[in-house]
Design goal:
Layout: E1 6-13, H1 19-31, E2 37-44, H2 51-59, E3 65-70, H3 76-86, E4 91-94, H4 106-114, E5 119-124, H5 132-148, E6 157-164, H6 165-172, H7 181-188, E7 192-197, H8 211-225, H9 228-257, H10 264-296, E8 304-307
Parallel strand pairs: 1-2, 1-4, 2-3, 5-7
Antiparallel strand pairs: 3-8, 4-6, 5-6
Helix pairs in contact: 5-8
């Protein structure tokens, strides 16, 4: 018996021409055996390949497919946010286009939702085929987030999740310039449960998250949910101030006995060290000030170039 409940599937896409037909076909095949209505919303995040042409071709033969095309690349998190802002489902499921997020566990996510859970998030289990460097940086990312921020995010948490419409309604009211959705969703609460999964092999292309983006993402997460780095800068300043005071007796003693206080190289090294430390602390403060500066401008989080959804209603 067909349920009247509508499931919205959000798929951010950045140059995913080859993946889009495969992921849409996999979702379509899955829902043939599920008693739900569904819609697939592709969010084309400033694509420079033929992603949009591929989506438009699919729309001609699949009435369940919708799209949002950004005017430029605004980033993965804002692509997810745009999909949520314009989804109509009783629940929303976000996943990647490359099928590393296996559609086969969607029925389990829906079963948890039917039990009353309003957030069903996934935990990626370690893939032994991944390079050691990738696994190390991933663990370092979550350790950094959890040690410096005020929200606890399990290692391996992914943007593959189900959100009830009441949670999506809350998220629609957030207009942060750099939303960190993994943290926001943990922060807002509601009944949450996790599901483990093993990622599939990537269909095509390479990961969009290189080391530089991982570091940027970690800084974004930490500064979105905590002021601990600012306290850390203060404690660091106090520590080195105390250490410099401890050095004072040595200087006075050397002056008293007439011993020359030499060491030009060590002096320069000290100056360089503390100069670098000051710049680091100023950089931490600058990140927070910069986030406030961008937020108070109240620019739109993203700009929609075209869509076959009623984007004016949101």
């Amino acid at each position: 018996m067909q349920s009247n409940k509508l499931i919205s599937i959000i798929l951010p896409a950045f140059n995913e021409t080859e993946s889009i037909p495969k992921v849409s076909a996999a979702i379509e095949d899955l829902f043939k055996s599920l008693a739900y209505r569904y819609e697939i919303i592709f969010v084309a995040d400033g694509c420079t390949d033929s992603t949009m042409e591929t989506i438009e071709e699919l729309i001609k033969t699949n009435k369940h497919i919708y799209y949002i095309e950004f005017s430029r690349n605004f980033g993965h998190q804002l692509a997810l946010k745009a999909g949520m802002d314009h989804a109509n489902g009783d629940c929303v499921i976000s996943m990647d286009c490359d099928l590393q997020h296996p559609p086969e566990i969607i029925p389990e996510m829906l079963a948890k939702w039917e039990l009353g859970y309003e957030v069903v998030y996934t935990i990626r289990k370690d893939d032994k085929k991944l390079p050691m460097s990738k696994r190390i940086t991933s663990k370092l990312f979550y350790n950094t987030i959890n040690s410096l921020s005020d929200v606890e995010i399990e290692s391996g948490s992914a943007d593959f999740r189900l959100l009830d419409k009441k949670v999506v309604k809350v998220l629609k009211n957030f207009h942060e310039n750099e939303p960190f959705l993994r943290g926001l969703i943990k922060w807002i609460g509601y009944r949450q449960i996790s599901i483990d999964y093993y990622p599939n092999q990537r269909l095509s292309g390479i990961s969009k998250y290189n080391l530089k983006k991982m570091i940027s993402f970690a800084l974004q997460g930490v500064t979105s949910f905590s002021v601990r780095p600012l306290y850390g800068a203060i404690y660091l300043g106090f520590t080195f101030t105390l250490l410099s005071i401890l050095y004072l007796p040595y200087v006075l003693f050397a002056f008293y006995i007439g011993k020359e206080v030499s060491g030009w190289a060590s002096t320069i090294m000290t100056i360089v060290f503390f100069g670098g430390l000051n710049l680091m602390i100023l950089g931490i403060i600058g990140i927070y000030v910069g986030k406030m500066f961008m937020q108070v401008k109240e620019r739109p989080n993203y700009i929609i170039r075209s869509s076959n959804l009623n984007t004016e209603a949101n």
